[in-house]
Each structure stands twice: as structure tokens, then as C-alpha cells.
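Fold Annotation — chain and its backbone

Fields — amino acid sequence, C-alpha cells

___
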Amino acid sequence: MENKTSSRKGPLIQIIEVGLGIWVRNQCRSINKIDISLGGSNYQILSGRISSVSIIAEQVNYKDLILKEVNLISGPLALNIDLSNKNQKITFREKFNVEGNISLTSKGLKEIILSTQWEWIGQWLAINLLGVSSLQSIEIDGDILKLKGSDADKDVSTKSEFDIEAKLGTLCFNNKTKDEFSLLPMDQSIHINHAIIKDDKALISLSAVVSPYS
């Protein structure tokens, strides 16, 4: 049976953990706190084969996706280890799978839809959920997602409440007052397994394929 590395880590294992931490931070704009743990036997890890990597992080900005909490575990990884490279001591030999949970707050959602990269989400929410051209506000209130939008040209404003769930591998928005739902377009490399709004947060369980070179 494979076990997690002992608390008395050798220098090479520490280097691998630091290298993975650097790689993760390089994928993100910012991370407030991160903890990385390797899984597998010492022999596997020293040979660059790792059975799993667990990542627990807080206050993560991943390409302007503002995540309050991240808890992920990877499938097997194959690494190249280069001790002569100060800036990038590890590289990946192949794609790998991850699965786990993320959470978002009202503040994070507002920052996401205000960013240039993800403003299309705000437009999609306005058009598909509210039937207007512009999203004015988005808020998680308890167990409900509240949206407000408007059509400036028609001097029309509207608001509605939704819950979310996972359906067909993506996020499904269910209107609380109408028998209507809409599915958010999703990258094919990401599969949403479970989603719920609870205690002022959107809680999402997902699995994904990570390509280190994309």
C-alpha cells in the first residue's frame, strides 16, 4: 500500500514540493495560502513518479477566477526534475487529472464578471437568465443567487432568484419562480460533478484534465 511521505522529508522531496508550489503559483495571479502534500512511496517520488498531489489553498485568483477556497487532489503525475534550474526545477511529462472542490462568494463573483476575460459570463447571465442585455448586480444571499439586469435602450430592468446544480457536466441555473433553467457553456476539459449554493457561498465539485503546456 502506498503512503503519504513521512513528516521527516528528504531534501529532494522538499524540492519537489517547492517546485510544484512554484508551478501552481505561476498559473495564478495570486494565492493567499497554499499547502501541498505528495502521495506515494519515497522510491516513486524520487524517481519522478507521484501517485497523487493534494492542494489546499485559500483566496486564489486563477486567471481572474476569484476562488475563496480550493481543495484538489491529482491523479498520477510524471515529472522531470532539474536541480540545475533555479526558476523551474520540475516540468511535467504528460497531462494529468484533478478533482476536488472550490467555493466562491458574492465578492468573488462580482470581480469575475467585471474582469475582461470573464465579462462574457455576465453577458450570458443577463441574456439567458434575465432576458436583458446587461447584468447590473450579482449576489449570493444565503442559499439563493440573486441577479439584477437591465436594457438601457428599452428602459427596462428586471431581477430574479436562482439556485444551481450540476447537470450534463456543467452548471445549471434554475429559476426559483419559473419552470426554466439554463446550462452555462463549459470548457470540455472541465466536468462539474456537484454544485449548490449554501451559507452565502457557491460550492462546486469538479474534475478536470490539466495540460501543463496549454
